[in-house]
Amino acid sequence: MNKEQNYYQSVHTDFLISDLIVRMELTLLCKLEFILVLYSLLHRGHTQDAELTIEPQWSTFYIGESVTFKCDMKEGRAEDWTYTLKRRDWTVYSNDPRQHLLLYPLDKDHSGVYLCCGHRKSSDYTKCSNRVSIHVSDRFRSRLTAGTTTVSVGDRVTLSCSVEKSAGWKYEWFRRTSHTSEYRINDGENGNIRVSQGGIYRCRGFRGESMIYSDTSDEVTISITFPNKVSVTQKPSWSQMFRGETITLTCEVQGGEGVQWEYEWRTPQSQTFRTNRKDWTFTASISGDYSCKSRPTDDSYSGTKWSEAVRVSVSDKPKAQLNRNGETLSCSVNPSSSGWSYSFYRGEKNDELLTVKNTDYHLNREIKDSQGGVYRCRGGRGEPVYYTEFSDPIIVEGEFLCVFLILY
Length: 408
Prior knowledge:
mainly beta, five-stranded mixed sheet, 1 helix, Immunoglobulin-like, 12% helix
């Protein structure tokens, strides 16, 4: 082989070696880039897979409750990792071997956004989860609502209890009366109950293993209505009463025989009061409507409906009016009203009562005068007797008095 052939052979060999080296370098570079990309993809996938959840899954917690954070790396076994739970300004747990991390008791300062990170024990590999927000609030008051507060005997009314802005509540119910202490009436598993018994009810909510309670609701009074009709009668039954007269109203319950009733009266001023007697005697003072209802004495939350109102018209105390027609003196009451009997008096100081023994004064309103003097009259009615003001005087001249009674 000559020198030229040796030269080309050497060049060809060098070219092959160089080409092989370049190919090997490109292959190694591609493999390295592939490994880096694969690592990046795998690492990014693991970060997305890490998951932080809470139990219970409520949006709002209350002071004194508890929450458990679960940090799941979604990779390997749970014991292969240590866990760090943190908030932006606070590390709650650091490198803890437990996957479930309890925060108890909660306070308002525990509100915020939480994140957990896992560190693999066998390496320096760490990845973090999604973020979870919790809000811790003061305790809320339970709210009790009723479909109606009055129900007929034999019917039921639905009571509903709720705690606003939160979930997971169960409820317990309480009843009392004015004569009995409060007691629990069911196990509280339902926010709605139906009751047929009168009384004072309230409720409250509870939830969670720590049995946190809401504040108790306001009270609601349920009344049971009897079908008995009630009416009011007036005695005396005069259409016009005068201030200071005595009047008696009677509350009558139809079909209430055998029941010991207690009575409640409503006055024109919308005031109410109770009595054990069905008759109410009082002094008339103002005009207005009076009504009554009744209830059994042993059940203060059951009773009848209100009666129709009785209108009592009351005027100022009247004044008698004395008139003379010839020898006849007649007495009347203005404004005109019924039930009056009349008395006549003679003398400057009304010191002589002109009367006829055993006379029905209800019909007596005239006398005849045959004797001079100063005469007055007044009317009276009712029991005890209610008197009008004295009339203005009339002066009669003469020496002989003859009193005649004219009955109408």
